[in-house]
Specification:
Layout: E1 2-7, H1 13-26, E2 44-49, E3 55-68, E4 71-83, H2 92-104, E5 111-115, H3 120-124, E6 128-129, E7 132-139, E8 146-153, E9 157-161, E10 170-177
Parallel strand pairs: 4-5, 7-10
Antiparallel strand pairs: 1-2, 2-3, 3-4, 3-10, 5-9, 6-9, 7-8
């Protein structure tokens, strides 16, 4: 297994086609078939390639400030972690999460944050489900137009501390879109 880190602005047509194919296979009903991002471009991605150089795993990363109960926190957001259906149960998802954690070490990051429909993989890798009421910028997926501000408890929110700050429940302002 080969893991490659790629910045968004370095993605060429060939790798873009591979990413698009993997994302539409893994997220068939919610992922737009004509682009490689959901609401916004990630800043970089980790890509997992098998021995035949086929793309079998993907995770996007978004670094930004959020506001947790009036205090700024620096987060690395995990976006669209996915593994090809024919390569699942081989530890690729955990390997990608491990790469994200290694990448975070020694950097100015307080937490790794993600939203998960299925929390099993993330719990197994040290992520904690938290109960925060979130505020975010609502973006229409198809038209990419701002639709307003969302504000509600999101049960799928999970975090992992990688800095010295402690996570506390309360209000979390994403200061941007929901990834």
């Amino acid at each position: 297994m080969k893991i490659e880190k790629i910045h968004e602005y370095d993605i060429n047509g060939e790798i873009e086609a591979k990413i698009q194919e993997l994302l539409t296979i893994c997220f068939p009903k919610i992922y737009p078939a004509h682009r490689i991002y959901f609401k916004q471009l990630p800043q970089c991605r980790f890509l997992a390639f098998n021995r035949e150089n086929q793309l079998v795993g993907h995770v996007g990363l978004d670094y930004r400030v959020m506001n947790l109960n009036g205090e700024p926190i620096k987060i690395l957001g995990v976006i669209d972690l996915c593994v090809s259906p024919n390569a699942r149960s081989e530890g690729i998802g955990s390997l990608l999460l491990s790469e994200v954690e290694k990448f975070s070490e020694g950097r100015n990051i307080d937490f790794i944050l993600l939203f998960a429909d299925n929390m099993t993989l993330y719990s197994k890798n040290g992520y904690t489900s938290v109960g925060n009421k979130c505020k975010w910028l609502k973006i229409d997926n198809e038209s990419l137009i701002t639709k307003g501000i969302g504000y509600e408890l999101i049960d799928e929110l999970m975090v992992k501390a990688v800095g010295k700050k402690k996570w506390i429940n309360g209000d979390l302002d994403l200061l941007g879109y929901l990834f």
